[in-house]
Design brief:
Rossmann fold; two-stranded antiparallel ribbon; 5 helices; globular; 7-stranded mixed sheet; alpha/beta; binds S-adenosylmethionine
């Protein structure tokens, strides 16, 4: 059985267009089978896009676990001068994000986690993280990416309450991060993480 986070998707393609309308930007993007949230904008992602404060206008802004790219696309539309990086282990997800970036006319660099240069420093991370890869893998992934934050860097993570948002909050705090719950809506917590 294949999961949305597997790197190679064997399932036949079935493109479906999703419309996103936020208070400041609107766009449509393609989703596909084998990529997270086929045919719809995930409710947690919607909470992040609606509730996170405006991203900085410049710097390196990362969509960690980009899927079809709705977070990266929103970052690109809100901060057209910034360098947007969309990362995913799933090949089809990265391809879809690249296609969607051309469709929406924003500049997005897609990368597999193994392709990320060691020297990359990040000003902002927005993520609907892959909880289903398991706690250890999730924690390892977050540790690597949070360590890439600049001194003033920030991360916004949206996590479903019943999938362990509060235990992730505790884990981050125990590992020395300053964490604040900025929103709790529709069963999702939006966590703000800083050094
Ligand atoms: C919950 S989905 C969110 C997708 C998309 N951002 C959205 O909001 O629709 C999490 C994504 O993380 C990806 N992922 C899994 N493990 C990863 C890792 N180690 N590094 C980066 N992305 C990963 C999955 O393939 C999946 O696309």
């Amino acid at each position: 059985m294949s999961h949305y986070f597997d790197s190679n998707q064997a399932s036949a393609s079935d493109r479906r267009t999703v419309e996103v309308m936020l208070h400041d930007v609107a766009f449509s993007y393609e989703t596909d089978r084998g990529v997270f949230s086929h045919g719809e904008l995930d409710s947690g992602t919607a909470v992040l896009l609606q509730e996170a404060p405006p991203p900085p206008s410049h710097g390196v802004l990362v969509d960690l676990g980009c899927g079809a790219g709705p977070i990266a696309l929103t970052l690109g539309l809100r901060s057209p001068e910034a360098h947007i990086v969309a990362v995913d282990t799933n090949d089809r997800a990265r391809q879809l994000t690249a296609t969607n970036a051309r469709r929406v006319n924003v500049d997005i660099t897609t990368m597999h986690p193994d392709e990320v240069p060691d020297a990359l420093r990040v000003d902002l991370i927005w993520s609907n993280p892959p909880i289903r890869i398991g706690k250890t893998a999730l924690h390892d992934m977050l540790q690597v990416w949070l360590d890439r934050l600049t001194e003033q860097g920030e991360a916004y993570l949206v996590v479903q309450r019943h999938l362990g948002a509060d235990s992730l909050h505790d884990w981050l705090t125990q590992h020395g991060w300053n964490v604040a719950r900025v929103s709790s809506r529709k069963g999702f917590r939006l966590l703000h993480v800083q050094r």
